[in-house]
Amino acid sequence: MESAIPLHLETQRTRHRRVPDDYQPPYPSFVARYKPEVVRVVMAYFGVQYRDVAPAAAIEAPAEIGERFAGEGGPTHWDRAHYVDQAGYMNVVSAAYWDDIARFDAWFEPAREAWTGKAREGIGTFIEVLRPAVARHETLFSSLGRPEGVAVIADGMSGEVQEHAYWGGMRDRIPLSQTDPMTPGGVPELIRDGARLRVKAHDNLCLIRSGQDWSDTEASERKLYLDDVEPVLREGMDFLRDDGLGIGCYANRYMQVLAAGSHASEKSYGQSWWKSLAALERWAESHPTHVKIFGAAMKYLSTLGPSAKLRLYHEVTVAAADEQFFEYLNCHPETGMLAAVESAGA
Q: Which of 43, 149, 226, 310 qualifies as a FRET site for 321, CA 20 to 30 Å off?
């Protein structure tokens, strides 16, 4: 049994874990392992937003960013997903990952100017970037063999880890939690740059991407997931999308991953911005919507046991103020972190 925290990031604890040293989790889970020389990663979301029928620009812009991804300095991995937001807009989001900050910085500025530096007819565009130190980040996977998101750019996966299957495990997997409460500090601010709107968020902003992959399931398991689990998950995701501000969730997107040719795949993920890790923990531990999700998932997994083919994963980051970048052009005011500015009364 390994610790989720890699050996080179272990330090003398001043804050205790939620479980004793002899804790044995009830089922296996795994985390991504980076090479020790990787000290920072980049997670960059490039979004297109439109209403009703997709204008030509809604097709052209994602194709353009895809070409930039494939060019010099582009990401090691990227994927694309879509969803309809609380204002009824379709959003197509390309999520890209780097493990080389210098490479990203050289690539980013011209890509940024091309993405949010010019208006396109009928669409809005946005960029949301975190570049966290690896000590501010954690991942968790229910199975091996198919990494997703930021884990694709890691060196590999761990063996079975100890810090999971209990409330507080998410925090315990973040190396910084050994010494730091990761309390948020500051108030979101809006910065106007011509037509572009930038959000300066605050210290210890939290991001979670939490995904499901049912592509390996066979008929009976797929029916069980789609009939009994997914609707409960969607209900919780819709609550965070529509009413999350009251509990510290600035924005939530429940997205379906797009395969080649922009066809819907049998993968989805929720991606949400939170005021703090503590706010995310409170929702996970006690809010009725997540209690229902947890109950449905446990019933599903207990019914199928080790034969379950559903794959689950997540990545959680608590970012310092200088590790964040948010920029929006011609997007509605509830888009992403613009909603955080609204909630702060700016």
A: 149
